[in-house]
Amino acid sequence: MTALGDTRPEVRAVRNEFALERYRYILQQIHAVNENAHRFLAIYQTLATTLVGAALALFVGYRKWGVAPATARGGVIGLLILATVVAAFTIMLIVVGTLAWLDYRNEECDITDEMVGAGFRKRPRPGNFFRWYETYVLLFIAVSVITMWVLAGFFVLPTMR
After folding, report:
1. Would the pLDDT of 89 be above 80?
2. Which of 41, 32, 52, 39 is nearest to 135 (CA)?
3. Cα 82–86–89 angle (5° rounding)?
4. Rounded CA gap, 161 and 158, in Å?
5. Whole-angstrom distance, CA of residue 151 vs CA of residue 159
6. Listed residue (134, 111, 138, 137) closest to 16, CA to CA
7. What's the predicted TM-score (pTM) here?
8. CA gap 78, 71 in Å, rounded
9. Hey, which of 7, 29, 76, 135 has its CA 20 to 30 A from 37?
10. Which of 99, 95, 92, 102 minimizes the C-alpha distance to 125?
11. Does residue 2 have a pLDDT over 60?
């Protein structure tokens, strides 16, 4: 007879203890995934601010520093590309974190269905993405990158001749 079907009290106690420890681990992982999204946003904001600040410093000071306009334009474009790469990496990390969160939540539901009762904890619905803060973090990152490129394309790069 397998341990799952075994009804002896000592086997049930071990099984319940194992399920409880696994449940604690899953909750810890869900918490860590939630915290990581905030960390990723903070890293993006810091790096994007630094890179765009460097691009603006180059824009403002290239003449005084004796940098050729073509070189300064290339530098601004390079810094914006770096900011875009940081944004893409941050978006990727948040999407992967969201997928991990969904997986952990489903595993949490599996454990509670078996140990407590079916339907004790509702499964996450990806259709509720508009209520997840990660959705708005991703939108913020995408809009900020698009805004950086549009502003650079209309105001910064054309004046660097």
Report:
1. yes
2. 41
3. 135
4. 7
5. 12
6. 111
7. 0.86
8. 10
9. 76
10. 102
11. no
